[in-house]
Amino acid sequence: MARSSFAVAGLVALALVATGCAASTDPAQPAGGSPSSSSAASGGLHALPPTIVSPGELDGEDVSVIVGTALVIAVDDGTEDQWRGTTADPSIAEFSAGGSDEGATFRPGFEAREMGMTEATLTAPDGSEIAFTISVVAP
User: What is the pLDDT of residues 36-45, one digit of tens each?
Assistant: First the structure.
């Protein structure tokens, strides 16, 4: 009797798991999440990672960044809020200052807003400027 109880419990658990993993039959809601989830909002199943580079890798270069992601500048710890940046066309890419907020430290970078190409400048804490190009591309 105990053996058949375990078998029945196993079949019920298997049925529940299989039902939970089944695709949604509601055409208004995609399988695996609500329409307000970040994966649905981005149009894909996973968020894409940022492009991370050091300031020394940028000078005179053309850096490709996927639209909707960011170009993060890997600066020395403690200098995150001392870097400044500009772009010729902020509708394509826009500088985002680094710094600390509520115990978290954020590196400076550029947000890739729409596909295209724009000239960019990054200014170091010592005032030296690094000029480069940001090409915002499709995923």
Answer: 444 444 455 6
Calculate the alpha carbon distances from 8 to 1, 2, 13, 17, 60 in Å.
11, 10, 9, 14, 68
- pTM score of the predicted model: 0.68
- Residue closest to 87 by CA, chosen among 63, 110, 64, 54: 110
Angle at 89 between CA 87 and CA 91, to 5 degrees: 115
In terms of DSSP bridges, do strands 62-66 and 129-137 run parallel, antiparallel, or are they unpaired?
Answer: parallel
Q: Report pLDDT for 45.
A: 66
Residue 30 lies in a domain: no
For the chain, the domain total comes to 1
Q: Using alpha carbons only, give the angle 122, 128, 114 rounded to the nearest 5 degrees.
A: 10
**Residue 114 lies inside a defined structural domain of this protein:** yes
Given the structure tokens 């403690």, which residue do they identify? 78
Range of the domain at 89: 51-137
Q: What is the mean pLDDT of the chain?
A: 80
